[in-house]
Specification:
The protein has 316 residues and is of the alpha+beta class. It folds into three domains: 82 residues, Ribosomal Protein S8, Chain: A, domain 1 (2-Layer Sandwich), CATH 3.30.1370; 73 residues, Ribosomal Protein S8, Chain: A, domain 1; 124 residues, no CATH class. It has twelve helices and eight strands. The longest helix is centred in the last third of the chain and has 16 residues.
Length: 316
């Protein structure tokens, strides 16, 4: 009889070992102090590897986590074979296969990817009461911590799980579809817009002899007369008062008085007068100037036209 006093879990473990040892076949207990491999995982591998068969072939592998110790109970002839398997599996990981890796992301957010992976690990990681590999995507404990400053993930996992995690990260860290939008916002004031040029206009066909073109802008806040005003009033650039002085100075009515009598103004108001538009009026001013031997300047033409148009023609 064997009397054992301990916690319930340890009593069940000792009971299981005692039941395994209490047989007619000789058995031995071998303790392996592991340096690299996990005792839990190695115990699960050995128990699955030597399951079933006759009593001589069966063994029991138990893990002691605090010291990463593996205890194997088996027949003497089986212990040597198990020792070779343990030695093969208890190897240092290759460079780059450490449990801690830093993965720098190119496109995705480290915080978002870490949230997805931690949720996946919580749903498909190893669970208590289940042997590694049963109903689990990851065989061991996996932790993912995001570093927002470097947009990187700090991952702790076994080499096998590390490859699975990195494969998932590579599929999540891809370039998103992007649309490039370029916009140019320009603020233009009236003062600045005047620097862009002038608008050319003319009275009639200014390619003919004696016709002139003039330019300007249509901005209301500029100094002087708007070109729209000029278009509405063909002699807006002229001064009617100055034109009246020129009219008297050059005795323009002298020949009119001889032709029509009176003060000569009837020539402007008669029914069959020849001038019917501003262009003809400017042309007639040229003719009159030539008849009396005067070289009338463009501004004087505008002044005389403004005076005659105000008093007689009323062209618009």
């Amino acid at each position: 009889m064997l009397l054992v006093t301990d916690s319930a879990s340890n009593v069940r473990r000792i009971e299981h070992i005692a039941h395994f040892l209490d047989r007619t076949e000789p058995v031995v207990v071998h303790i392996f102090h592991l340096r690299h491999a996990s005792a839990d995982k190695l115990a699960a591998i050995l128990n699955n590897l030597y399951v079933g068969g006759n009593a001589a072939d069966r063994l029991k592998a138990l893990a002691y986590d605090p010291g990463n110790v593996l205890a194997v109970v088996a027949s003497p002839q089986r212990i040597n074979e198990v020792a070779a398997v343990v030695e093969t599996l208890d190897r240092a990981p290759r460079p780059g296969n450490s449990r801690l890796q830093v993965h720098y992301l190119k496109y995705a957010s480290a915080k978002n990817v870490a949230a997805v992976l931690n949720k996946l690990v919580g749903q498909h990681g190893p669970r208590p009461g289940h042997a590694p590999g049963q109903d689990a995507v990851f065989s061991g404990e996996v932790n993912i911590v995001p570093d927002a400053t470097m947009n990187a993930l700090l991952i702790t996992a076994d080499p096998g799980d590390m490859k699975a995690v990195e494969g998932i990260i590579d599929k999540l860290d891809v370039r998103r579809r992007e649309v490039l939008i370029e916009a140019l916002i320009v603020e233009v004031t009236a003062d600045e817009a005047q620097q862009f040029g002038v608008e050319w206009r003319g009275i009639g066909d200014f390619t003919q002899v004696g016709r002139k073109a003039f330019g300007g802008t249509a901005f209301s806040n500029q100094a002087g007369t708007s070109i729209n005003t000029v278009a509405a009033d063909p002699f807006a650039a002229g001064n009617a008062q100055a034109g009246e002085k020129l009219f008297d100075q050059y005795h323009c009515n002298r020949c009119h008085m001889a032709m029509e009598g009176g003060d000569g103004s009837a020539i402007f108001t008669r029914i069959d007068h020849k001038v019917t538009n501003p262009q003809q009026l400017v042309a007639q001013l040229h003719i009159c100037g030539g008849n009396v031997g005067l070289d009338v300047t463009p501004q004087q033409e505008q002044d005389l036209g403004a005076y005659l148009n105000r008093n007689y023609y009323h062209f618009k």
